[in-house]
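Standup notes
- DV: blocked on the single-chain target, sequence here:
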Amino acid sequence: MGLFRKSEKPDNVNERQSEASNGSGVLVMENILIGEKSVDKISAIERAGQLLVNGGYVMPEYIEAMKERERVLTTYIGNGIAIPHGVGAAKNLILKSGISIIQYPQGVVFDEGKVAYLVVGIAGKGNEHMQILTNLAEFIQDEDAIKDLFTTTDKKKIYDAFTSQV
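- DV (later): unblocked, structure below
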């Protein structure tokens, strides 16, 4: 079973809501936003965290832990992607593993010369945290495929790209 597996019926709202609430979906369509206007990195992190809160993946305090991680060490990982996640001490604030993806076609500056077009909020329960990071690290190696996701207007394309990697 993959961490980014597709739901059986991703286009059915009731199925997606059920999937999120019963813990079977690490990535659900509601946790993908596209075409967002550029904001500062803290606002982008808060938004990614709020999607995780709304999906029942983390407690609200996890958002502060995500911002703390960014203050300690940037979560920009290259190729136009940032992966905000909480500091280690916040593990108890994670209810179940999940990710959120926000597309910023004009980008969000994470550091000088480091612009993220996809901000992927991560909450990994137990050892799943490292599995999620490993999957993402492998996923971003295909620069051409990733760049296409920076400007697509098709949310399902982002969903399919992330869920077909496992």
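- Follow-up: Residues 40 and 108 are 6 Å apart (CA to CA).
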